[in-house]
Amino acid sequence: MQYDMTDFSKVLVSENDIGRKLDEMADAIRRDYEGQDLLLVGVLKGAVMVMADLARRMPPQVQMDWMAVSSYGSGTKSSGVVRILKDLDADLTGRHVLIVEDIIDSGVTLSWLLGNLRARGAASVEVAALLRKPKAAVVDVPVKYIGFDIPNDFVVGYGLDYAENYRTLPFVAILDPKVYEG
Ligand code: 5GP
Ligand code: MG
Ligand code: MG
């Protein structure tokens, strides 16, 4: 596949980097949950690629479920009020749950999600995220498995979009500001 690379100011994480990191994360997850029932919960739509590639590295008893949420807020600021657009199919009672996320920025959505899922009687709820921005490192959102700490730039690719575009890229890139500044 050919891409117009002039849309990006930099490729931040290559396809190979992602693959190697997911190998490491999956090794740790398989070790930690060995002999336990595990449910991966993906947050649509951004986590689709991470979920697919992480789940492929799991034993066949590991299950997947999906949620879609939207954060209420004015403009670009997240208010912390989150609405469920699509809820899980699974009953979490007594289950070990691992939330699979694409990127954590303010951590607002994730901290709401953690509270919500923990209230459903899960045996445990942890988080795996491919990317984390600097803001997230200072808020109190415990992320057990983290791929890459990245700078505070707007990135696209590997599930992450700008206006629903760029999700299909196999790598993560910094979007050149000319694309959204017109
Ligand atoms: P938080 O609640 O942690 O501030 O927001 C997390 C969500 O914001 C992510 O799931 C993602 O949808 C979006 N987001 C945060 N940073 C970026 C970014 O650099 N690029 C893209 N495409 N989305 C981002
Ligand atoms: Mg997300
Ligand atoms: Mg988006």
UniProtKB/TrEMBL annotation:
Which superkingdom is the protein from?
Bacteria
Enzyme Commission number, as recorded: 2.4.2.8
Which reactions does this protein catalyse?
GMP + diphosphate = guanine + 5-phospho-alpha-D-ribose 1-diphosphate; IMP + diphosphate = hypoxanthine + 5-phospho-alpha-D-ribose 1-diphosphate
- The main place the protein resides is cytoplasm
Q: Which UniProt keywords apply?
A: Cytoplasm, Glycosyltransferase, Magnesium, Metal-binding, Nucleotide-binding, Purine salvage, Transferase
One MF annotation (Gene Ontology) recorded for this entry: nucleotide binding
Residue span, Phosphoribosyltransferase domain: 18-162
| An example Gene Ontology CC term for this record | cytosol
Query: Might you name a Gene Ontology BP term for this protein?
Result: hypoxanthine metabolic process
Q: Does the keyword Metal-binding apply?
A: yes
Q: In which pathway does it act?
A: Purine metabolism; GMP biosynthesis via salvage pathway; GMP from guanine: step 1/1; Purine metabolism; IMP biosynthesis via salvage pathway; IMP from hypoxanthine: step 1/1
Q: Which cofactor does it need?
A: Mg(2+)
Name where it's found: Cytoplasm
List, alphabetically, the InterPro entries matched.
HGPRT, Hxn_phspho_trans, PRTase-like, PRTase_dom
> Which PANTHER family does the annotation name?
HYPOXANTHINE PHOSPHORIBOSYLTRANSFERASE (PTHR43340:SF1), HYPOXANTHINE-GUANINE PHOSPHORIBOSYLTRANSFERASE (PTHR43340)
Which NCBIfam families does its entry note? HGPRTase (TIGR01203)
Family affiliation: Belongs to the purine/pyrimidine phosphoribosyltransferase family.
Q: What is the protein named?
A: Hypoxanthine phosphoribosyltransferase
Top-down, what is the taxonomic lineage of the species of origin? Bacteria, Bacillati, Actinomycetota, Actinomycetes, Micrococcales
The encoding gene is hpt
